[in-house]
User: Which sequence fits this backbone?
């Protein structure tokens, strides 16, 4: 253990506080607590401090001699696991980076799915608009025709009233009243069909 921490021999540590060997004094307190409790420790992880200040990850297995509830002597072996711990830190860092990358990929995928949905909705809306425009076209055309027919009937009636006694037959022929009477129900029926078709598309 002395060589591991960069000290030439145990004499360098003879009058020093043992806590200088530990990066975290709490590690030493926990080690002593376990040794007092069971008289031994196995694979106890601790973070030690080298003579030059560098940190060393150690794995300690030790047996304590206890007399009167006090530790008199500790014999053990400390294994340097610094490289292993550094590798574990690298793996943890890589896992965090992978997790971030996966999140970015998921977010990108979700964004693409949303864009595809929006595009599909746009295509659907365009299709619906096209389907609605067709019946709307002939509904509008029929209404224009009915407006002209109604005007013709109104003009015919006005002439009949004005002339009073003129040939009604001649006036009805002049304004195509018989044709209008036959055509209006057809226009109304087509208009109703167009409106029903629009309602079905919307629903």
Assistant:
């Amino acid at each position: 253990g002395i060589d591991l921490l960069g000290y030439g021999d145990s004499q360098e540590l003879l009058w020093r506080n043992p806590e200088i060997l530990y990066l975290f004094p709490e590690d030493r307190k926990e080690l002593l607590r376990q040794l007092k409790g069971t008289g031994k420790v196995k694979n106890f992880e601790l973070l030690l401090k080298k003579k030059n200040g560098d940190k060393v990850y150690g794995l300690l297995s030790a047996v304590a001699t206890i007399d009167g509830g006090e530790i008199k002597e500790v014999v053990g072996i400390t294994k340097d696991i610094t490289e292993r711990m550094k590798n574990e830190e690298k793996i943890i860092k890589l896992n965090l980076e992978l997790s971030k990358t996966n999140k970015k990929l998921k977010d990108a995928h979700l964004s693409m799915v949303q864009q595809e949905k929006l595009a599909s909705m746009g295509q659907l809306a365009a299709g619906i608009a096209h389907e609605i425009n067709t019946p709307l076209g002939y509904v509008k055309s029929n209404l224009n025709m009915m407006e002209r027919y109604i005007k013709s009937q109104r003009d015919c009636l006005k002439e009949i009233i004005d002339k009073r006694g003129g040939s009604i037959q001649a006036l009805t022929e002049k304004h195509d009243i018989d044709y209008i009477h036959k055509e209006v129900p057809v226009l109304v029926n087509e208009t109703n069909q167009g409106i029903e078709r629009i309602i079905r598309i919307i629903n």
